Input
Amino acid sequence: MTVKLMKQGEGAVLFLEGRIDTMTAPEAQEALLPMADEYESLILDFDKVSFVSSAGLRVLLMLQKKCNSRGIEMKLIHVKQSIMEVFDMTGFSGMLHIE
Amino acid sequence: MRELTVKAVIENIQAVTEFVDEQLEMLNCPMKAQMQIDVAIDELFSNIAYYAYHPEVGEATVRVEVTEEPLAVIITFIDNGAPYDPLTSADPDISLSAEERQIGGLGIYMVKKSMDEISYEYQKGQNILKIKKQF
Output
């Protein structure tokens, strides 16, 4: 998976691409978690994310916890229906801010 | 019935997923069901790779069977590692907020929720975990 960053004022838009699964979750974690320290808001663009497994959910939960502890906003946009179903099944759709 | 035996290492998740997907595609499996099955493979095979033989490395077999009327696939994961029944883990509370949530326990919960049947048995030194998904 890849993460592309676009700065937007004090915040960042992160364009994620590919699968977030057991294999790629460590690199996703490494790429994403520091962003919660560096920016004042995060928008995760999921348009090109094709697959999220439980390992990917764990990374999103860690990132959300980190954003919450710093009091910054984190938002997911362009989430595909198939991935939305994963979020619905696990209650993540109620826990994350998804537009 | 087809089966694939590979070293139970995390890098082989891709080979296992491709092996199963290839057969799902031949059956014209709907994308949603295929995605759910791929999520299950990610969870179940990674469990075996991380824990079954730790710190040694062993083998895992993935078997795909098809039943008709209704059309369904049965995927069986077999390893010779330490006995482990993932179905005994408690379901996470999915109504909790991010702060209250524990990291973990979601994977097997998703498998339980998205498959039509799931069973575990330990027989002759083997962990045998079976999932069934109807199309």
Observations:
- Chain A has five helices and four strands.
- Strands of chain A lie at 2-8, 11-20, 41-52, 73-77.
